[in-house]
Amino acid sequence: MQTLKRRLAPAKRRSAAAKRRRRVSRPKISGRRLLIAAVAAFLLISVGRSVLPALGIETPKMPSFGGGGGDTPTAPVTKAPKAPTVDLNGVMVHGGGDPMVTLNPGLVRLGGSVTASGSGFDQGSMVDVFLGPSSSGAQPSKGAAKNAKPVQVGTAKAGKYGIFTVNFSFPTKMTTPVLEVTAQARGSDKVAKAEAAVAQGAGQATLSAIVGKPGDVVNLTVKGFSPGEQLLVYWGRINGDPTLTLKADEDGSVGKTPIKVGVTAVGTTSLVVVGKTSGAAASAPFQVLRLYPSIKLAPYAVKATQSITFSGAGFAPGERVLVRLNSAGGQPVMAVPTDGAGAFKGAGLTMPYQLKGAQSLVFIGEQSRAAASTGFTILPYMPQARTNAYGGLPGTVVNFYATQFAPNEAVHVYAKTSKGAKGELVSAFRVNKAGTARAVGQYTIPGNTENSVIFELRGQLSGSTATVNFKVDASGGPVDIPTPKPYVLPKDLEK
User: Fold this and answer.
1) Where is this region: Disordered (predicted)?
2) Which pLDDT band, with edges at 50, 70 and 90, does 32 fall under?
3) How far apart are CA 103 and CA 254, in angstroms?
4) In this structure, is residue 70 part of a structural domain?
5) Which residues pair with 362 in a beta bridge?
6) Is 360 helix (H, G, I), strand (E, B) or coil?
7) In whole angstroms, what is the distance from residue 255 CA to residue 220 CA?
């Protein structure tokens, strides 16, 4: 028995030593170590969120659950403007009283400043301004988010006459070549839209001036091209048709050559020169100033069928100026070319009958997007009329004299023979090109008429009315006059 115990003793000692070694190899984790590990993890996450985005590495965003927990605001949804209803010069346009918004500049640079000017809103109303994709069909650029929605860029309070101004910065990244600015009055269906086109541009070279506006003349000097090669000159871009073409001399240079500042985005841009043979390029930085166009209109008040004429200045040289009525967007009613100084004159429009009251003409340069607007008023026709006599007995034959109706319009005559009676069509005639007619139409005063007959003469194009009160004298007894047959309106006097 003792021999067996002596044999087992070394095994027990080895087992006890192994247990002690295991206890030593697994030390306890203290609370201090846990705290240090938590702080290190927090710092690592904070640095990742702040530094990685600056390096162009985006960290994944945690989704928001429940109400109000997310940091992504819901994109606003703006209303569409009312459809145009008036035919002017073969183009459907808006009538008076509708709101509109214009942009300056309309041809913008990424990150540049834009001024949105609105009118036609309710005085004192709050107007929200949004920037979003164009609704005119412009295709988004590659990689742009689908179904992008407008983003609010400003809010203004409409002042006197419903006018407001909002300044905002254009995005530094572009998702589409044309963006749309929408001005929406809160709690109202008044909304206006305008398009802003984004210009391309970059480069460098030598110019006699570094600041100017489109159309100004500066001297260009270039060097380092192939001898005798053609040089393509661009403003703010390096593709499409060049602004002009020069020819390098035997040294591959061009001396001081006067050129006009081309149409490009307002702000810092470049004149770029590209050698057609060598492919070499040179550029010169240039600060493009805003254009401030102006419009002169005459007269400022007309009637339907009358014409207004207008002239303009301050646009880009050689561009077309698009003319729109009561809107900065949509199809223009006409286009007027400018001369070498950015001006035009002698243009005009004839006003249709559908337009009433205050109106606005908007002029936008097709290339420069420089905009100007001016207002005018459509006056109503206020005709006058009388009969061949101020009064008479029953049986008197009456005809009519009229002035100041619309040119060549048909005039319908309605008669009321008793108080409260509905007017009955009794005659019709057509005025001349001066809106005048003499001794026209015919009507016999009925035998049962008492006191007076009220005649209303209504112009069928102008919608204007003249009234004549014909006094009927007492006949002293019954008057035997045949009842007239109902008047039949000739087809040629319908309008």
Assistant:
1) 1-25
2) low
3) 38
4) no
5) 324, 373
6) strand
7) 7
